[in-house]
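Researcher: Structure prediction, please.
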Amino acid sequence: MSFNVWGVLFPLLFAAGLAALVRTIGSLLRLTDGAVVARAPARSGERLRVPEAGVYDLCLEGRTFSADFLGVRYSLRDAGGELVPIRRKLSRTKVSGLGSTRISVGGFELARGAELSLSVEGMSAQAQQRCSFVVQRPIGAGIAVRVVGLVLAGAATIGGMVGSVAAWLPAT
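Model: Predicted structure follows.
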C-alpha cells in the first residue's frame, strides 16, 4: 500500500472542522447567556434593573411552540413614570432550545442606568407564570458571525469525513 497524502489531510480536516464546531457552539452559548442584563416574570409591576446606559433589546422568553406571546401588549416606564420608547426592530433575534425560546420584540436606549417598571396586558395568568421579559445587549451581529462559522466548520467536518473515506477506499 502506497502512502496517500489525501489519506492524512482529510482526517486532519475532519478533526479541525469538529474542533471548530465545538468551539463555535460554545462561543454561541456564551454570547447568548452573557448578553442578558435583567430578567423578570411577565407580570405588570415587575421591575427590570438595568445598571448602565446603552442600547438594549427587550425580549420575551417562554416555552417553545406555545401561543403564550400572541396578543401581548407591553410597555416600560422609568422610575419617574415616563414611558420608555420601544422601537420595532428590522430583524428580530430568536434563541431557541428544546424547552424555551427567547424572541427579541423591540429595542430601547437608556441615557443612564435605571430601574424599569413593566406593564403587561393580554397574557393569561398561566402564561405570566411561565414567561419572562429579558433585557439583553444586542447580539444580532454576533449570532450572524457564529452561524457563518458553524456552516463553515460543518462543511469542513463533512468534507473531511467524506474525503477520508474516499481516500482510504481502494481504487477500483
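Model: Residues 17 and 153 are 5 Å apart (CA to CA).
Researcher: Thanks, that helps.
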